[in-house]
């Protein structure tokens, strides 16, 4: 991941709006990180036999390649859309950790009640230096910017007092 732009847009104490634009560079790296979090937190961790872990990793690597191919072709199916939201969430989370020194907390969507279409924000974190908690919502659309869809859902979550 490469930072293309990082600037503060608004500073209305205590509210701040930070704009960070990134280039994901290699989607496979991000997808691999997401798969690794799932593997670390799942039943797979309990297996003693290395061949079981390597078989799962082999299948996961094929899935990652397939999803990357779908991204490259700008396909707009459910798999690509769900994977796109995970990628956007993970890159946003990683950017918060690396650029703004937020805590490294796994995606809420990977740890939450539902695996997709979660009932709250996709990611959240805290910054102990600035005493700030952040919630984020990710949207992916292969044909256009998904900012308006994310902002609309964020507004709804705030109004409904949903957090995670």
Describe the structure.
The strands form 2 sheets. Strands 1-2 form a two-stranded antiparallel sheet. Strands 3-4 form a two-stranded antiparallel sheet. It is globular and about 55 Å long. 47% of the residues lie in helices and 18% in strands. Helix 1 packs antiparallel against helix 2 (50-72) and helix 1 (27-40) packs across helix 3. The chain has helices spanning 27-40, 50-72, 78-100, 108-111, 147-159, and strands spanning 2-12, 15-23, 123-127, 132-136. A hairpin with a 2-residue loop joins strand 1 (2-12) and strand 2 (15-23). It has 164 residues and is an alpha+beta fold.
The helix fraction, in percent, is 40-55%
Oligomer: single chain
Terminus-to-terminus distance: 26 Å
Query: What structural class is derived from the secondary structure elements?
Result: alpha+beta
Q: Could you tell me the strand content as a percent range?
A: 15-25%
Order of helices and strands: EEHHHHEEH
Largest sheet: 2 strands, antiparallel
- Radius of gyration using CA atoms only: 17 Å
Strand order of the largest sheet: 1-2
Give me the secondary-structure topology.
Layout (H helix, E strand, L loop, with lengths): L1 E11 L2 E9 L3 H14 L9 H23 L5 H23 L7 H4 L11 E5 L4 E5 L10 H13 L5
Antiparallel strand pairs: 1-2, 3-4
Helix pairs in contact: 1-2, 1-3
Q: Which features would summarize this protein structure in a list?
A:
alpha+beta, 164 residues, two-stranded antiparallel ribbon, globular, 4 strands, 5 helices
């Amino acid at each position: 991941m490469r930072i293309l732009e990082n600037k503060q847009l608004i500073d209305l104490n205590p509210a701040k709006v930070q704009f960070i634009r990134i280039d994901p560079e290699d989607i496979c790296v991000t997808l691999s990180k997401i798969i690794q979090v799932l593997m670390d937190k799942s039943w797979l961790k309990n297996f003693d036999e290395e061949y079981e872990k390597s078989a799962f990793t082999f299948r996961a690597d094929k899935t990652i390649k397939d999803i990357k191919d779908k991204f490259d072709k700008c396909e707009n199916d459910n798999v690509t859309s769900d994977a796109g939201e995970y990628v956007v969430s993970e890159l946003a989370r990683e950017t918060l950790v690396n650029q703004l020194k937020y805590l490294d907390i796994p995606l809420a969507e990977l740890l939450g009640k539902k695996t997709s279409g979660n009932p709250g924000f996709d990611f959240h974190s805290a910054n102990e230096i600035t005493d700030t908690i952040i919630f984020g919502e990710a949207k992916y659309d292969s044909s256009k910017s998904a900012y308006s869809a994310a902002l609309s859902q964020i507004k709804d979550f705030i109004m409904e007092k949903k957090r995670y």
